[in-house]
User: Fold ATP-binding protein from Bacillus kandeliae.
Amino acid sequence: MDKVKWLQQLVQQNPQDAQTHYWLGKELAETGRWLEAVQSFSAGVAHCSDETLRAEIIHELTNATAQLQQEKLSHSASPPIIEVLPNEEEHSTSEEAEQKVKWIDRSAKFKVIDGGGEQKSEKPPISQVTFADVAGLDELKKTIHLRIISPFFNKGLFAKFRKKAGGGVLLYGPPGCGKTFIARATAGECQAHFYPVHITDILDPYIGVSEQNLKAIFDKARFQKPSIMFFDEVDTIGFSRAKSSANTRGVIDTFLAEMEGIDTSTDQMLVIGATNMPWDVDNALKRPGRFDRLIFVAPPDTEAREQIFQLKLEGRYMENIDVAKLAAQTEFFSGADIENVCELAAESVLEEILTTGNERPIRTEDLLNVLKTQQPSTLEWLRTAKNYVKYANQSGLYNDIEQYLRKYGRKI
Ligand code: ADP
Assistant:
């Protein structure tokens, strides 16, 4: 088996292991598979709590992103010839004119024949996910209602009290606990357009282009109000200045300028950031008027875990599942961990059916069996957080984690 395949298998078995994502990314980069390398490094960053490894992965991610951009540029300098032909049979049955695309290798002249299909609008749809899809996190939902959704709808009232609407909110917490999910749901609740932004949408090897990319994203969101922009892994954009290079510093400055350019009393625009490493986010980003509201997204509690099991098993062929028993045995499991447990259980039952030929539903024992092989992924993060709270919480930024640790700290 080649090394990439072997590493891909390892990643499948240990989706939370940053080191394996890193190795896979390196291997893919070596063979010039830049897009996959970027995906692997991104996954590595999302699951990494070791500072040295994280810095190394970010370095490789920046490099791979640069290579990918270069590849894109060289392709666009000499694009392949695309001949687009209307597909007549389908055209009559479908409203959106479908087209057959043929790649023709003619190195000298380029020709693009448009099939006449309507140009698609770049406007993202209003998010359909709402709080009803997010299990548990009731306190967080209340906070978001008070701090984000109400100001969004009651601008006049908030103006009377000179209370700001809009601005930036930074969600932080262990990976897989629903930061992205709840940001999307918040957009759904506000009936706003949702703009998810990833570091790879911004970074570019050419000086000044990353800043332009970032500015263009803000401009687009400004044009499509009401809008919620969601910046994942803010720490990689706003990596502590002390640790960042001259290149990323320009990006931080643009980011700050754009955020301050949002007029919170008139703009129906909100920036939500997420990070697993709030302590790595440049302090400049956490000042008033920027990401001045830090909200902790904790691992799901027992009740929420029950709901997540229910949600993730919904629609599968199963017997009455004892979700309370499963929830009791999954303390500190993230939503993503629980999703993974459900997937593995379904996989094992399918495998059994395929070998024995006897069809049967998923049972509670199947899930319990999988649990014997799984560890909660949030513990490592919580241990790191414990140290930061102990030694770096003078300003009270991490009071939410402190409160959580007071309740669960002894078990961590
Ligand atoms: P994060 O952004 O915190 O790393 P995500 O929001 O991407 O995590 O969550 C990963 C997946 O886990 C989501 O796609 C979702 O299906 C599931 N998940 C996490 N938390 C919840 C939750 N509270 N309710 C329902 N699903 C959840």
